[in-house]
Amino acid sequence: MTRQNLWAGILSSLAFLLMFLLFKWYWLISLLLAVGIFIAVYLISQPANKIGNIDLDNLKNGLEIKDLYVAAQQDLQKMKEDHQALANSRLKEQVQHLIQIADDIMLYLADHPREISKSRHFLEYYFDTAAKIINNYHQIHLTHISNQKLEQIGQKTSESVSLLDQIFTKQLEAYHEDKLFALEIETDLLEKTIKLGGDLR
Which residue windows are transmembrane per the record (predicted)? Predict the structure, then answer.
């Protein structure tokens, strides 16, 4: 049972008892009014389906926008969690900068939700890829492989993060220029770089 259902049920039950027992109203009228109160309280207490100040229910593709935004938020949270565990100071600094840009992108999208659906490719591919690359290095580090191999993977991961930083920066700049850049070329370059750093899990 959700919190909305619980509060609506409690208030409508109290209303029924007051009308029926205290005011001696006819039970059917009391019941109908209590049901009306339940529906009203439930609707009022429903969380607003919004991003920023935009009501997504008023947009044709509101559900798609919300799903894309939530998924990107989850990817960003994964980046932040893995960033805290990184022991490689240089890579940690790079990831921190990437996260700052990603935060700026999410803030922009929160203020301009209509841009989210236009950014489907960027959010689905690059946010997810960034989270996987950072987590991939973190997981490899936990396996206690040789320092030489770890350093090699760290270098390739650093190259991938550097490329992602450039792509994220371009995307952020594109938003502020009120247009989106095509990122297919960067995608090919990134995929080649990722392969050098090991398979993603």
Answer: 6-23, 28-45
Long-range contacts of 129-132, Cβ-Cβ distance < 8 Å, separation of 24 or more: 129/164, 129/190, 129/194, 129/200, 130/75, 130/79, 130/98, 130/102, 130/161, 130/164, 130/168, 131/75, 131/76, 131/78, 131/79, 131/82, 132/200, 132/201
Q: What's the whole-model pTM score? A: 0.66
Domain boundaries, the chain: 3-46, 60-199
d(CA 169, CA 38): 49
pLDDT digits (tens, 9 = 90+) for 8-62: 566 666 665 666 566 666 666 766 766 777 666 555 555 556 555 555 555 567 6
pLDDT at 130: 96
